Amino acid sequence: MKPQRRILCVILAGGKGSRLGVLTDHRVKPSLRVAGSYRLIDVALSNVANSGLSDVWIVEQYLPHSLNQHLSGGRPWDLDRIHGGLHLLAPFTGATGEGFAEGNSDSLWRHRERIAGFEPDLVVVLSADHLYALDVRDVVATHERHGAALTMVTTRTDADPSDHGVVVTDDEGVVTEFAYKPDEPADDLVAVEVFCFDGPALLEALDLLHERLGGLGDYGEDLVPYFVAQHRTVEHRLEGYWRDMGTPESYWIAHQQLLDGTGARLDDPAWPVRSAQPQQLPARVLAGAQVADSLLAPGSHVAGTVRRSVVGPGVVVEAGAVVEESVLLDGVHVASGVTLRRCLVDDGARLAQPGVVGEADAVTVIGPDGQVDASVAGDPSAD
């Protein structure tokens, strides 16, 4: 009988996500809500849990308290175990790797001793800010079939490839070129930031590159190019839906696609998105309210008009208020006479001044103080 492989899953969830403006001023990006009831971290955790993998480590750094309460020790994903299960890796002092990471490769190097102590055959590294469904076992199968040192998950993108790592492969799926956020992309095939490394090769590369470069940064700049140049690196093609949720435009587009049925499927009984759901009463829709093509989270209270929008837990839309093509996060209050168009509204914002907020051809981000975030602006069609 073939011995069982020791597979360690490492989810990187420590980045600030500054491109989202005020939406990540008081939370780490992976704790941002998706579809009203879920959190972005639920996607990566559910993919891992549905794949039957139970050794899962989450690397934290920026505002970890915004994520830890939701994680509930791994219980929603059946990862609250005595042996294995969910473990949180925080920045530390007093040993090699102490301090704060300067990028995702650096995060792996700083926790290198713990990874080595696990003695993994394979290390699967996942980012926590993308929307997709993936059976990690299929990635492992591709990795072993090709005898690869690195297998990267790739997909074709209809967005700007220069926002990602651009990949070129030969006819057998071997990666021949990798360019990290190039000015002139050679292709629309991009890495989705799910990587399956040979465990010993990863540890060796982290040590070698750290010594050679004097430190590490993002794996698109150092670790992945090293593997492409020095080791057999192959792709595993993701044919289904995938979207990076790192900008207001992409976050908005993902929710609009979810509403019109062209986006991610979050209700597949064969591949459920597991989560610590809000413990609130079901959404309440009052007489006279008009709701169409929308998602209403538990605890929401709608008396006005909601069209093509996602309404989060505890949101109130008063009679005479209109919400169109918007995403309202927890506890937002929209008063009578207010119209929202293509808005992303942060937790607890109270919008009471009558009038129209937002534009028909752009995404407007509104902070918890109810003010428009001037630091981010964009055309949703540009994503």
From TrEMBL:
Domain Nucleotidyl transferase residues, every copy: 10-260
Protein name (database record): Glucose-1-phosphate adenylyltransferase
One Pfam family hit: NTP_transferase
InterPro entries from the UniProt entry: ADP-Glc_PPase, GlmU/GlgC-like_hexapep, NTP_transferase_dom, Nucleotide-diphossugar_trans, Trimer_LpxA-like_sf
All copies of domain Glucose-1-phosphate adenylyltransferase/Bifunctional protein GlmU-like C-terminal hexapeptide, residue ranges: 289-359
Record-level Gene Ontology MF annotations: glucose-1-phosphate adenylyltransferase activity
Keyword Nucleotidyltransferase part of the UniProt annotation: yes
UniProt key word Isomerase: no
Family per similarity comment: Belongs to the bacterial/plant glucose-1-phosphate adenylyltransferase family.
GO biological process: glycogen biosynthetic process
Keywords: Glycogen biosynthesis, Nucleotidyltransferase, Transferase
